[in-house]
Amino acid sequence: MTSMTSRAIRIDRPGGPEELKLVEVSVGEPQAGEIRIRHKAVGLNYIDVYQRSGLYSLPLPLQLGMEAAGIVEAVGDGVTHLQAGDRAAYASQPPGSYCDLRVMPAKSVCKLPDAIDFETGAAMMLKGLTAQYLLRRTLPQGGLESGDFILFHAAAGGVGLIACQWARALGLHLIGTAGSDEKCALAKEHGAAHVINYAREDFVARVKEITGGKGVKAVYDSVGKDTFLKSLDCLGPFGLLANFGNASGKVEPLDLGLLAAKGSLYVSRPTLFTHIATREVTQRMADDLFGMVTSGQVKIRIDQRFALADVAEAHRSIEARKTTGCTVLTL
Ligand SMILES: NC(=O)c1ccc[n+]([C@@H]2O[C@H](COP(=O)([O-])OP(=O)(O)OC[C@H]3O[C@@H](n4cnc5c(N)ncnc54)[C@H](OP(=O)(O)O)[C@@H]3O)[C@@H](O)[C@H]2O)c1
Q1: 3-state secondary structure at position 312
Q2: Which is the closest atom of ligand 1 to the Cα of 222?
Q3: What is the rounded CA–CA span in Å between residue 32 and residue 76?
Q4: Which end of the chain has fewer CB atoms surrounding its CB within 10 Å, N or C?
Q5: Which residues line ligand 1 (CB under 6 A)?
Q6: Atom of ligand 1 nearest to the CA of 49
Q7: Tens digit of pLDDT for each residue in 192-206?
């Protein structure tokens, strides 16, 4: 058996960015259903912050990271959709993508089309598949049609800028919120029909104004604690609030009676990992995403690059709301 080592970023206990330690780990051969992949670039996601801080509690020590792209080096028994030498990319569980080389389940790894470079592949899988399942699979009663209004918070972020472009391609009028005028301008440039700077504007009042008092059919809310209740007030009757993140903290327990009082509303708390539970669905969703990217309808914007050893700096930036678009770790 070959013995290899890899640089990796690990935490031994939950905490701040200072807990992110660069270590050397040994990497073995892939077992049945697994591959070994040599990364070319690694994607950074807000979920990495939740896992590092302990908001999402996972067994320790923990090698962080949920997204990367690279070249498949070896495949275990039973893996038929990949072979050694393939260019590939993934959004995956378990965590562990902050490294040069790893062994991991093959199920969520997809062949990367030649037209998509490694950094783009690393930046887009978790965030792009999330935009896919939100706009294509997390819909209000009756679905969404061209011309419908939706509200998307943190529209200038990694998931946000992808969603702005995807929504435009679907003919949806996406109202995007962001924390500064510069971020609002970026979201608008990427396809948001309307933008609201929620740091200084009342987004409920602005949504009512934009929709002529009707409200939107769906709100996609990853900010959580600070926006959740106000997001309910942006919905029309039977509208859907999909709370898919907690950048400002976890949402407080909800009094279900509020949903009746505010118009027979629906609330969902989706996660990508339910959607990509099987190889077949993962590939279908990835093909949809690859099509949007290779056709140029969705451009993956990488605004921040950090060396693997500087990952703590990357975490500080994303938590301080200093980032826009996607962030990658270069190797
Ligand atoms: N459930 C799922 O399946 C799933 C999958 C992927 C991502 N997500 C969630 O989607 C969100 C976007 O992910 P991402 O990786 O693309 O991150 P991101 O949007 O690039 O960064 C998070 C953004 O949230 C906004 N924000 C609002 N309040 C904040 C606060 N108190 N602290 C920090 N940020 C705050 C900031 O934008 P402004 O300054 O413009 O407010 C910030 O840039 C995250 O909440 C993530 O957890 C969920």
Answers
A1: helix
A2: 45
A3: 5
A4: N
A5: 45-47, 126-127, 130, 154, 156-160, 178-179, 183, 222-223, 226, 244-245, 247-248, 270-272, 318-319, 321, 323
A6: 47
A7: 999 999 999 999 999
> What's the mean pLDDT when you consider all of the chain?
97
Prior bond of 94 cis (ω within 30°): yes
Q: Which residue has the CA at smallest separation from atom 9 of ligand 1? A: 245
* Terminal CA-CA length for the chain: 26
Expressed in angstroms and rounded, the spacing between residue 157 Cα and the centre of ligand 1 is: 7
User: What's the confidence (pLDDT) of residue 2?
Assistant: 59
Residue nearest to atom 27 of ligand 1 (CA): 223
Mean pLDDT of 213-223: 98
- State the Cα torsion 12-18-20-22 to the nearest 10°: -110
DSSP 19-34: G-EEEEEEE----TTE
Query: Where residue 92 falls among pLDDT bands split at 50, 70, 90?
Result: confident
Looking from the CA of residue 156, the nearest atom of ligand 1 is 40
Q: Bridge-partner residues for 197, per DSSP?
A: 178
Distance CA 318, CA 120 (A): 18
pLDDT confidence band for 1 (50 / 70 / 90): low
Q: Are strands 21-27 and 4-11 parallel, antiparallel or unpaired?
A: antiparallel
Q: What is the pLDDT of residues 261-313, one digit of tens each?
A: 999 999 999 999 999 999 999 999 999 999 999 999 999 999 999 999 999 99
